[in-house]
Specification:
alpha/beta; eight-stranded parallel barrel; 17% strand; disordered C terminus
C-alpha cells in the first residue's frame, strides 16, 4: 500500500514540543504515514528516533518512511530527486519530484511527492509554485500515485489537491507548528472522507 490521506513530514526544529509527542498527537488526529527527516542527526540518534516513532505508529497500524536511502532498520524510504538511481530494493520507495523531467526518470518507485504546490515557509524560495493547475498537469504525467506537498495548511487547499488528482497531501509546518496537532490533522483528514481523487490512473487499494 502507498501513502494516502494526510502524510506528516517531521521537523523537530520547528515542532512545538517533543517530536515524538507531536507525532503522537498527529496520529490521534488520523495520520497513518510519517516521513522521518531530521537528516542532521547522527545515524544512531536518528535510528533511535525511528524506533520511537514506529512504536507510536504501530498502535494505529501506521507506517514510518525514512527520508534518504538508509531505511534505519525499516523497509520504507523517501528519496530526493537527485538520487540514488536506481532506488534501493526495499518494501516501499517514494521520491521527491518537481517537474516532468524528474517524473520521466522514475523507475521502480511506488509513489512521488510533487512540490511546491504553494509557497512554503519550510523551503522559502523553492519553486515556482505549481498551484493546482500545475499539479494537475504533472499528476496526469506521473506513472505512480502522487502526494501534493508545499504550503498546504487549510482544508480548502487539501480539497484543491485532491480535485487535481492527488491521493494525499504531505504536510510539515501546519502540524509541526500547531498548538494542537490532533485538531489540525483531524480537520485536514476530514476532507478525504468526502473527496475522491479525480484520476483513474491507479486502482483503489484494499487492505
Amino acid at each position: 500500500m502507498t501513502p494516502r490521506g494526510v502524510v506528516l513530514l517531521t521537523d523537530r526544529l520547528v515542532a512545538r514540543g517533543d517530536l515524538v509527542d507531536v507525532v503522537a498527537g498527529a496520529v490521534r488526529g488520523g495520520v497513518r504515514w510519517v516521513v522521518l527527516r531530521e537528516k542532521d542527526l547522527p545515524r544512531a540518534e536518528r535510528a533511535a528516533l525511528a524506533v520511537d516513532l514506529r512504536a507510536v505508529l504501530a498502535q494505529a497500524g501506521g507506517t514510518l518512511i525514512v527520508a534518504g536511502p538508509d531505511p534505519l532498520d525499516g523497509d520504507a524510504v523517501h528519496l530526493p530527486a537527485a538520487g540514488p538511481y536506481p532506488p534501493p530494493a526495499v518494501g516501499l520507495v517514494g521520491r521527491s519530484c518537481h517537474d516532468a523531467a524528474e517524473l520521466a526518470r522514475l523507475g521502480t518507485e511506488d509513489y512521488v511527492t510533487l512540490s511546491p504546490v504553494w509557497p512554503t515557509r519550510s523551503k522559502p524560495g523553492y519553486g515556482p509554485p505549481l498551484r493546482p493547475d500545475g499539479l494537475r498537469d504533472l499528476i496526469r504525467r506521473s506513472p505512480v500515485p502522487v502526494l501534493a506537498l508545499g504550503g498546504i495548511e487549510t482544508p480548502e487547499q487539501v480539497t484543491a489537491c485532491v480535485d487535481a488528482g492527488a491521493v494525499g497531501v504531505a504536510v510539515l509546518g501546519a502540524v509541526m507548528r500547531a498548538t494542537d496537532p490532533t485538531a489540525v490533522v483531524a480537520t485536514l483528514t476530514r476532507v478525504f472522507a468526502t473527496r475522491t481523487p479525480i484520476t483513474d490512473a491507479w486502482p483503489e487499494e484494499t487492505t
